[in-house]
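Many introductory courses stop at the sequence. We go one step further.
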Amino acid sequence: MDQKPLETPRRVTLITNKAANRGRAEKTGKKVEELLRSYNHDVEHHLPTNALQAASIAQDAIGDRRHLIAVGGEDWCTA
C-alpha cells in the first residue's frame, strides 16, 4: 500500500520506556523517531526514567496540542 506523506508536518512528542523489552525498546524508539523525522515531523523524543516523568511529559504534550506516541509498556526503570 502506497501512502503519500502528509503535506503538513505534525508536532509529535515521543516517549520511550528505554527499559521495556529488556532494553530493546530504546532502539525501537529511535527507529520510530527516524521514521517520523523522515516525514518532516517535528519530534521531541523523551526517555523518562520513571512513570511520573512520563506522565508529566505526556501532560505537557497534550497541553501544547502535540501528537503523543509511547513506545514500550513494561514497568519503568528507577535509574
